[in-house]
Amino acid sequence: MWLFGRGSSGFSFSNTAEEVTNGIDATGLTAIIPGAASGMGAEAARVLALRGAHVIIADRNVTAGRAVKEDIIKESHNAKVDVMELDLSSKASVRKFADEFKSSGLSLNILINNAGIATNFKLSQDNIELVFATNHLGHFLLTNLLLDTMKNTARKSNIEGRIINVASGLHWLSSYGEGIRFDNINEQITRRHILWSYAQSKLANILHANELARRLKESEVHITANSLHPGTIVTPIYQHTPNTGGINNMLCRVTSGCQRH
To answer: Of the candidates 180, 135, 162, 166, which has an alpha carbon nearest to the alpha carbon of residue 229?
Structure first.
């Protein structure tokens, strides 16, 4: 059964990021990972740095980001890791981050749109529902602002760039089964329906990756765009979602393949 077996890659839910990347040399590559101060983003940052990539931890919590950086350097003394402030719920913060990164003159090979929240109804600084603003709009804007840098890097290095949207298998729950409610993004959702707003943002991540992949292929740009479901991983994102933590703990016991970050 595919749920518990190995996919076409030869790997399964039980494999670690280190096992999957074993033998890969990422020296000379630069990766930006929003939301890398904890959870899956921190693990992705650790393993990419371990493989030689220059990793940019982009997070609103720079203190936590610096702690992750210190842990990575303790493990890999030659690791290249920087921390930059980025609040994906704020368009101004996203634009500032992109401007600062581009002014650094660094190349950009990998963008992992990883950051995400699931929380009670709030509005962002830009008066947009916070979950949708953070999980989709922030990543969408960031990708657009950095796309030319990625294109230039791919052209000069002849190394295929990667844009990865961390989505979720929960996308099918989006907005009461009606898809994305573009005309009512700011609907006040009760705690009971937090997962629906989260699912709506994850569906947007998938649609974004699909359309971006189509345009990049059509333009013959040497960059791929994909979305992924990371599987069952217990991270702090579930602290505000009812029952989900219990469901994940059950799945972890059944599959023995869950990881905690």
So the answer is: 166
Residue 41 DSSP SS3:
helix
3-state SS class at 120: coil
Q: Where does 62-196 show beta strands of DSSP type E?
A: 80-85, 110-113, 161-166
Instruction: Please list the alpha-helical segments (H only) found in 134-187.
Output: 138-157
pLDDT at 240 over 80: no
Distance of CA 12 to the CA centre of its chain: 20
Kindly state the average pLDDT of the residues 203-207.
Answer: 92
| List 81, 198, 225, 233, catalytic entry | 198
Q: Residues 6 or more apart from 195 whose CB is under 8 A from it? A: 118, 170, 173, 241, 244
- Residue 238: active-site member: no
The whole-model pTM stands at 0.85
Q: Which residue has the tokens 């609103």?
A: 60
Q: Which of 177, 17, 56, 39 is nearest to 118 (CA)?
A: 39
Q: Which residues contact 75 (CB under 8 A, 6 or more apart)?
A: 46, 50
Residue 169 banded pLDDT, cuts 50, 70, 90: low
How does DSSP classify residue 136? I
Phi, psi of 59 (to 5 degrees): -150, 150
Residue 260 has pLDDT above 50, yes or no: no
Q: What confidence tier does 196 reach under pLDDT thresholds 50, 70, 90?
A: confident
Q: Which two structure tokens, joined as six digits, stand for 167?
A: 């989505």
